[in-house]
From TrEMBL:
It comes from Nocardia jiangxiensis. This is threonine ammonia-lyase. One of its GO terms (molecular function) is threonine deaminase activity. Its EC number is 4.3.1.19. The keyword Lyase applies.
Length: 409
């Protein structure tokens, strides 16, 4: 990367002066449950409580505020699955500039509605953010609007770097920072801020395993596009790292790890139950990494700061994810149990389950099924358990009593 493209401390400090009065200084809270699991002090940087519900307004505001008057008059355009869309819409509206946003066809309805409410004209195009970005680029060429890229511009990275400045002020003893990662704007911003002010601090990026473009890109020495993606973490589902973030990440980030969908849903559940925070799938990636990898495997030392990058989650998706998270955490147990089709059989089964301390969440009784004998019935049960150990105890109790039990994933 050319020296002029390098993001210096002066650029970050200038961004902080512009962005600071407009955005919230988000809280840093202790995560005792993660400290107990890992043996190191952990704090959460709550960008899910930022304006518009994510860190994105920092970069968007810095980029738009730096536009010359001639460009401001032509408006701005962006592409996003939701968080950057809202950040651009809010920033442009705050600065009195027209904004147009292209979002994927499958973008969540609450994010669409919020983006419009912040003042943007919204169009849906393409199945992914990358396809929406193509439409946004075409719009920019046709209208003269300035494209506000989600992550691939020095002003965007400098704006996101203000997260790093804040957490250093709030947690001067931090030794490791863990950052959810898509295109790399936030990761690069935090990394470059720490490079200038606290070069001893390790920075770890986290990607969804089903949308992990960074490991292959770093191995190749240049951004490499993925063939496809499929993850609930739409906020970090980016098929190709940005050119501007890439060099900063390659030079400064200690490691990038991936987390699976179960880990993400468990992390969301933990944030809700123990930290009382609503966090979207992408925003929970750093917590998911701490729940997946032991500190030694991540090669981290405490105190650790895990960034919660966003909290914009569709309520319907949240309902499903809570169930998925409970199942992944061993708190839900779905069984099919064959019983005798005689009076009292179902009652005896339920009494057996009650004796284990499990709660029946849902039950279905059926006599249909080619695999059942004439005098048999099948009971489908969803049980709430206290965790993996209790889950195994329930299964053992039922099989030990002679029931034919099939565990459903």
């Amino acid at each position: 990367m050319a020296a002029m493209d390098r993001i210096g401390l002066d650029r970050i400090e200038a961004a902080a002066k512009l962005v600071g009065p407009a955005v919230r200084r988000t809280p840093l809270i202790a995560a005792r449950v993660l400290a107990e699991r890992t043996g190191v002090e952990v704090r959460l940087k709550c960008e899910n409580l930022q304006r518009t519900g994510s860190f994105k307004p920092r970069g968007a505001y810095n980029r738009i505020a730096n536009l010359p008057e001639t460009e401001r008059g032509r408006g701005v355009v962006a592409a996003s699955a939701g968080n950057h869309a809202q950040g651009v819409a809010w920033a442009a509206s705050t600065l009195g500039i027209d904004s147009t946003v292209f979002m994927p066809i499958g973008a969540s309805l609450p994010k669409l509605a919020a983006t419009r409410a912040y003042g943007a004209t919204v169009h849906q195009a393409g199945e992914t953010v990358d396809q929406s970005l193509v439409a946004a680029e075409e719009f920019a060429e046709q209208t003269g609007a300035t494209l506000i890229h989600p992550f691939d511009h020095p002003d965007i990275v400098a704006g996101q770097a203000t997260v790093g400045l804040e957490l250093l002020e709030q947690m001067p003893d931090v030794q490791t920072v863990i950052v959810p990662t898509g295109g790399g704007g936030l990761l690069a911003g935090v990394a470059v801020a720490l490079e200038h002010l606290a070069p001893h601090v390790r920075v770890v990026g986290v990607q969804a395993a089903r949308a992990a473009a960074w490991p292959a890109s770093l191995a190749a020495g240049a951004p490499v596009a993925l063939g496809g993606m499929s993850t609930m973490a739409d906020g970090i589902a980016v098929g190709r790292p940005g050119d501007v973030p890439f060099a900063h990440v390659a030079d400064r980030v200690s490691r990038i790890v991936t987390v699976d969908e179960d880990a993400i849903s468990r992390a969301m559940l933990l944030c809700m139950e123990r930290a009382k925070l609503i966090v979207e799938p992408a925003g929970a990636a750093a917590v998911a990494a701490m729940m997946t990898y032991p500190p030694a495997e991540l090669d981290i030392t405490g105190p650790v700061c895990a960034i919660l990058s966003g909290g914009n989650v569709d309520p319907l998706l949240l309902t499903r994810l809570i169930g998925h998270g409970l199942g992944a955490a061993g708190r839900y147990l779905v069984l099919r149990v064959t019983i005798s089709d005689r009076p009292g059989s179902l009652g005896r089964l339920l009494a057996e389950i009650g004796g284990t301390g499990a709660s029946v969440f849902e039950i279905t009784h059926s006599r249909a099924g080619a695999w059942l004998a004439v005098d048999e019935a099948e009971v489908s049960l969803t049980l709430e358990t206290r965790g993996p150990t209790h889950r195994d105890e329930v299964i053992d109790a039922l099989t030990g009593t002679g029931y034919a039990v099939r565990v459903q994933d």
